[in-house]
Amino acid sequence: MSMQQGWEPHRLRMQSRIVGAQGAEQSAASFLDPVLYNSPPHRLGRKHGNIFQSYLPLHLTRKVLLFMNIIVTGGAGFIGSNFIFHMLKKYPQDRIICLDCLTYAGNLSTLAPVMDNPNFRFVKESITDRDAVYRLFEEEHPDIVVNFAAESHVDRSIVNPDIFLETNIHGTTILMDACRKYGIKRYHQVSTDEVYGDLPLDRPDLFFTEETPIHTSSPYSSSKASADLFVLAYHRTYGLPVSISRCSNNYGPYHFPEKLIPLMIINALHDEALPVYGAGENVRDWLYVEDHCRAIDLIIHEGRVGEVYNVGGHNEMRNIDIVTMICDALGKPHSLIKHVEDRKGHDMRYAIDPTKIHEELGWLPETRFKDGIALTIQWYLDHEDWWQPIISGEYQNYYQNMYGSRKEV
Ligand code: NAD
Ligand code: DAU
User: Fold this and answer.
1) Which among 247, 23, 245, 14 is positioned nearest to 121, based on CA atoms?
2) I need a labelling partner for 292 at 20 to 30 A (CA). Which of 76, 89, 121, 251 fits?
3) Which ligand is nearest to the CA of 227?
4) Which of 73, 394, 82, 72 is nearest to 257 (CA)?
5) Residue 54 has what pLDDT?
6) Counting ligands in written order, which one lies closest to the CA of residue 255?
7) Residues classed as catalytic
8) Cα–Cα distance, 346 to 251 (Å, whole number)
9) Residue 210 CB neighbours (<10 A)
C-alpha cells in the first residue's frame, strides 16, 4: 500500500466534516485546527510548513504535532459529558471521540454544545460490541481511552444485576483488548469509592485510602470492583499502561434525575414527596463534577501508570441534611420529606482520603459544597428543557416501580 493510499481514508473522513468550507485540496494538517486551517502555507513557519507538505497519515501528523486523540466512553452521561466540555475547552487541539450507546442515562442533547466542534465526534456504539470498538480504534488511532461508560445506579443494580456485569465488566475488558491490539498511551478507568464498601458512622477517623481492601456491598459496586481488578490484571499480565481513579459522589449539571440531588431538586420543584431512604443518616462525600474532571485530566497526563488514585473533597454530608438544604434553597416545606423503606444493603458512610493525588499531582477540590450546590440548584432551575423530557418518558415507569411500593417508615 502506498503512503498516498494509507492516509486517504482519514483524509476523506476529516474532509467530510469541513469540505464545504475549503474544498477538497486542503492538506491533512490544515484540518487539525483553525489556525493552520485558515493560514496560507508561507505563514505557518518551518515546522508546520514541512508537515503541511507531507503525506503522513492524518493520525501520524497529529502525533507529530503532539495532539491527542482521546476516546471518551459514556460521554453522553453525567460525568463523561462534563469531562468532554472540560477537555475541549482546555485542549482545543485534541480530538475527542465520544463512544456511547445512549442507554436511558445517555442523552445526546447534553452534547449539543460541542456537536459542531470539528475536533469532536460522537459514535453511537456499545463498549460491549467488540467489532464496533475495534472498528473505532482502526479509524481513530486513540492515544488515550477514558472509560466512563457504565451502568451507574445502585438501586437499578439491586433490581437487575445482569446488565451491570455485561457493561461494567465485559465492556471494560473489550475496551482494554482493543487497547492491547492497537496500542495505547493510556487506558484510564473511571471507578468509584464504592469498591471499598462502607465505613461505620461512629468512626469519623477512618477514611478510604488506595490500600483499603476491596469490600463491596451492591451488585453495582461489585461490578465496578471486578472491572478494577481486570484493569490491574491487564497491566500486570500484558503491560497495558493503565490508571484508575476512585471518586466519591459527584454532583452538578447534567446529573441524571434518578440520583439523590437532582431527584430531590426536581421533586421539590413539583411539590412532590422527597423519599429519603431510612433515617437519612447515611453519609456521602460530595464533590463538584468539575473537580472530578480536573482530577482525571491530571491523572491521564501526569499520573503514574499502574496506579490507583482516590478522588474526594473531604465533604461528608448526611442525606437528610442535603435534602433539608435543598428544601430551604427552594423555599419548600420540610413536610415534603418522607422517610421510606431503606435501600437493601445500604452503605452507611463513604469518606475518601485524597492525600495521594494531592501530594503526587497537586490536585485539590476548588468548589466548596455551599457554592456547588447553589450552582447546581440554579442549573436545574435554568435547564428544565434538559430534564423535563427525561422525566416525562420511560422515567415515569422507573419511578413508579422504584418508589410506588416503597412504604413510609
Ligand atoms: P451516567 O449513568 O450518568 O452515564 C453513563 C453513560 O454511559 C451514559 O451516557 C450511558 O449511555 C453510557 N453507557 C452505558 N452503557 C454503555 C455501553 N455499553 N456502551 C457505551 N456507553 C454506555 O453515569 P455517571 O454518573 O456519569 O458515571 C460515569 C462513570 O463514573 C461510571 O463509570 C461510574 O461508575 C463512575 N462514577 C460515578 C460517580 C457519580 O457520583 N456519579 C462517582 C464515582 C464514579
Ligand atoms: O460514591 C460514588 C457513587 O455515588 C457512584 O459510584 C455511583 O455511580 C453514584 O450513583 C453514587 O452512588 P450512591 O448510591 O451514593 O448515589 P445515589 O444518588 O443513588 O444515593 C445517594 C444517597 O442518597 C444514598 O445513601 C441513597 C440515598 N437516596 C438516594 C435516592 C435516589 C435516598 O435517600 N433517596 C433516593 O431517592
Assistant:
1) 14
2) 121
3) 1
4) 394
5) 56
6) 1
7) 193-194, 220
8) 20
9) 16
Residue to mutate (ligand 1; options 72, 79, 81, 244; most atoms within 8 A of CB): 79
Average pLDDT over residues 287-292: 98
Burial of 205 (0-12, 13-18, 19+ CB in 10 A): exposed
Q: What three-state secondary structure class fits 189?
A: strand
Contacts 24+ apart (CB under 8 A), 367-373: 367/288, 367/290, 367/291, 368/315, 369/286, 369/288, 369/313, 369/315, 369/317, 372/251, 372/252, 372/286, 372/288, 373/251, 373/261, 373/322, 373/325, 373/326, 373/329
Q: How far apart are the CA of 106 and the centre of ligand 1, in A?
A: 8
3-state secondary structure of 58: helix
pLDDT of 1 higher than 70: no
pTM given for the model: 0.89
Distance of CA 313 to the CA centre of its chain: 18
Domains located in the chain, CATH noted:
3-62 (no CATH), 68-403 (3.40.50.720)
Asked whether the beta carbons of 278 and 342 are under 8 A apart, the reply is yes
